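Blinded run. Sample ID left blank on purpose so nobody reads anything into the name before looking at the predicted structure. Input follows.
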Amino acid sequence: MRSEWEAMQSGSNTHKVAILDQEMELQPLSIGPDEAQFMESQRFSRETISGLFGVPLHLLGDSSKLSRASTEELNRAFYTDTLNPIISRITQAIALKVLPRSPGQASDYSVDFDVSARLAGDETAQMNRVATLRQWSISTINEQREALGKPALGIAGDRLLSPLNMNVIDIHTGDVIAPTQPSSPGVSLEA
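Blinded prediction complete.
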């Protein structure tokens, strides 16, 4: 049947009217005007909600114009522009109304929302961030391991590196510790 149909509708018969027999019915492959209008109104509703509340379209189910990189940037912008101000107001309200404090003094406690998992990005970007923070003495190995949900390495992981020549710096005193000769290639964490 398929080969007969293709023979009748190809070559010089292309674009001619097809005749259906044997009680066949034509099933349109496109959507009708009502369905198209409904889909357009849904898209418009998503765009309206997105504009009013600052929520990226992909979080409302519209993934028509996305790549992985743009999704990560949109998530980051969503946090910075929309969620961060809301979270800030919530933490301030909790700190003011819930946390115990003496009159005229700040509380010994604080409130924080952990959004690090939402902002983490891909694993390569995370590892580059960890390496950069470690290399330039912005954080210790233990601080980065904690941020990644890994256990601390003990006191050796609390040391900073000196950016100029990568000497080890004592985090508590700020003193440069003379480097030891490692027994194998690489950096030794031993004191």
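Unblinding after everyone has recorded impressions. Residues 122-182 form one domain.
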